[in-house]
Amino acid sequence: MKNVSILGVSFDAVNKNEASDLIFNACKNKSELPFTVVTPNPIMVMNAQEDEALFSALASADLSLPDGIGIISAAKRMGTPLPERVTGIDTAYSVLEKLADVGGSVYLLGARPEVAEKAAERLTEKLPTLRVVGTHHGYFEDDAKIIKDISEKSPDLLAVCLGSPRQEIWVYKNRENLAGVGAILCLGGALDVWSDNVKRAPAFLIRLRLEWLWRMLLEPKRMKELPKMVRFRLLTGKSRQKRKSFK
Ligand code: UDP
Q1: What's the rounded Cα separation, in Å, for the pair 108 and 135?
Q2: E strands within the chain?
Q3: Ligand 1 close to Cβ of residue 180 (< 6 A)
Q4: The predicted structure's pLDDT at residue 212
Q5: Quick one: average pLDDT of 23-28?
Q6: 96 in ligand 1 pocket by Cβ < 6 Å?
Q7: CA–centroid distance, residue 102 to ligand 1 (Å)
Q8: Which residue's alpha carbon is at the smallest distance from atom 22 of ligand 1?
Q9: Which of 2, 21, 64, 186 pairs with 83 at a CA distance of 20 to 30 A?
Q10: Angle between helices 166-174 and 52-60 in degrees, nearest 10
C-alpha cells in the first residue's frame, strides 16, 4: 500500500471505502495479532516529534488514516497528495454497519464511567444486529483485568477511546496480549459522540474545514493546541519538511 510520510509519521493512501473494507476484512479473518489502526491529526504528529513512545506506537500500526484536514493539506503542499480525509469515527461506524450485517461483535473501551454503556445502547438502537459484547470506562489502572475481559470476549473489533497519546501507547503495549481480537481502532472521543454526550460539528463547518474550530469552542482547553497547529503548518511548508528519527 502506498504511504506518505509527514514529519516522519506515515499515512496510508486509502480512501474511506478502502479503509473500512480493510478493517472489516481484518475483523472477520482474524490473524495471530490484531490489526491496529491509528488516526493521527496534526497535533498528534507534533506530539510524536517529542514523544518517542507515541512515535513508535504510530509507526507500528497496520493502518494509519489521515484524520484531519491539516494532514491532507500538508500532503498536498509536499507534492505527495493523499486521496481524502478519512476520519476514525466515520470509518469505525462504517465498519460497525458491515459487522452488524453479519452479526459481528465490538467491545467499547474508554471515556468516563457510563459513557461506553450509553454508546452501546445508542449503537444497538441504530444497528440492532450488532453485538456489543463488552464495555469499560477509560479511567482504569489495572491493565490485566481489562485485557482478560476483552480476551474472553474476543470481539471482532475493539474501539479504544482513551485520548491521545494514551490510547496509541496502550494498544502498542498490549497488542500481543489481545490475540483473538480482529482489529483495534484508536478513536479518541468517539464514545462521547456515539453516546450523544458531545455533538459533532455541523456539516457546513466540516465542509468549510473548520471542525477543529468547533472543537476549540466546545472545549476551550484545546486553545493551547493552536501554537502547535501553527508550528505544524510552518514545518510542513514546501521543502521545509524535517524527518524525526529516534535512535
Ligand atoms: N479518556 C479516557 N481515559 C483517560 C483520558 C481520556 O477514557 O485516561 C477519554 C475521555 O473521557 C474522552 C476520550 O478519552 O472520552 C478522548 O479524550 P480527549 O478529548 O482528551 O482526547 P483526544 O480526542 O484529544 O484524543
Answers
A1: 5
A2: 3-6, 9-12, 35-38, 63-64, 105-110, 131-136, 157-161, 183-186
A3: no
A4: 82
A5: 98
A6: no
A7: 30
A8: 163
A9: 186
A10: 60
Q: Which of 40, 49, 80 is nearest to 231 (CA)?
A: 49
For residue 137, the ligand 1 atom closest to its alpha carbon is 7
Residue 218 confidence (pLDDT):
84
pLDDT tens string 69-119: 999 999 999 999 999 999 999 999 999 999 999 999 999 999 999 999 999
- Shortest CA distance to 1 belongs to which of 114, 208, 161, 11? 11
SS3 at position 192: helix
Q: Is residue 4 a contact partner of residue 10, using CB atoms and an 8 Å limit?
A: yes
Q: Is the pTM of this model over 0.70?
A: yes
Place of cell 496510508: 12
Ligand 1 touching residue 162 (CB < 6 A): yes
Q: Enumerate the CATH 3.40.50 domain ranges in the chain, comma separated.
A: 3-198
Q: Looking at residue 247, what is its pLDDT?
A: 44
Is the Cβ atom of 166 under 6 angstroms away from ligand 1? Answer: yes
Q: Establish whether residue 159 lines the binding site of ligand 1, counting it when its CB lies within 6 angstroms of any ligand atom.
A: no
Closest among 194, 193, 173, 175 to 184, alpha carbons compared? 175
Query: 139 C-alpha to center of ligand 1: Å?
Result: 9
Q: Is the CB of 138 under 6 A from ligand 1?
A: yes
**Ligand 1: nearest atom to the Cα of 219:** 19
| Distance between Cα 188 and ligand 1 center (Å) | 6
